[in-house]
Amino acid sequence: MAKDAARVQQNCPECQEVVDVTETLFIQEVGDWKQPYLDYLQYKLLPPNCAEATKIQKKSSKFFVEEGELFRRGFGQSPLRFIAGEQIITVLRQVHLKECGEHQGGSRLAKQVMHLGYY
């Protein structure tokens, strides 16, 4: 989420500075990491890779599924709902553009989103 927060900040016209240096940004598309956890928690299905299966079994205790949505158990706080794709950008823009807080930077933006109950 921190990478997406930085991307929203980079696209915000108020945060942009005039830079004389040409920069290139490479964004790698990453698959949906939640699907193996959903498969395991709902249907007890594991990937064929033994190491990956062990990792999912160990980390799955941090998550639970409610009405088909993946949530992370928060330590001493409300559960955090997993968001992905366009939902991430929408929530980050709302938080960044003062709808849910002040005009803030990347790491603070990611913390604010988690505070609102998203993971």
Write a compact overview of the structure shown.
With 119 residues, this protein is mainly alpha-helical. It is 43% helix and 8% strand.
How much strand? Answer: 5-15%
In terms of structural class, how would the helical and strand content be classed? Answer: mainly alpha
Distance between the termini: 8 Å
* SSE order: HHHEEEHH
Helix content: 40-55%
Number of helices: 5
Stretches with pLDDT under 50, minimum 5 residues: none
Mean pLDDT score? 76
Q: Over the alpha carbons, how many angstroms does the gyration radius reach?
A: 17 Å
Biggest pleated-sheet summary: 3 strands, antiparallel
Question: How many runs of DSSP E, i.e. beta strands?
Answer: 3
Main sheet strand line-up? 1-2-3
Helix-strand blueprint:
Blueprint: H1 2-11, H2 34-43, H3 50-59, E1 63-66, E2 69-72, E3 80-81, H4 86-96, H5 106-115
Antiparallel strand pairs: 1-2, 2-3
Helix pairs in contact: 1-4, 1-5, 4-5
Q: Could you explain the architecture of this structure?
A:
With 119 residues, the chain is mostly helical. Helices cover 43% and strands 8% of the residues. The chain has five helices and three strands. It has helices at 2-11, 34-43, 50-59, 86-96, 106-115; strands spanning 63-66, 69-72, 80-81. It has a three-stranded antiparallel β-sheet, covered by helices on one side. Strand 1 and strand 2 form a beta hairpin. Helix 1 packs across helix 4 (86-96). The longest helix has 11 residues, at 86-96. The mean pLDDT is 76.
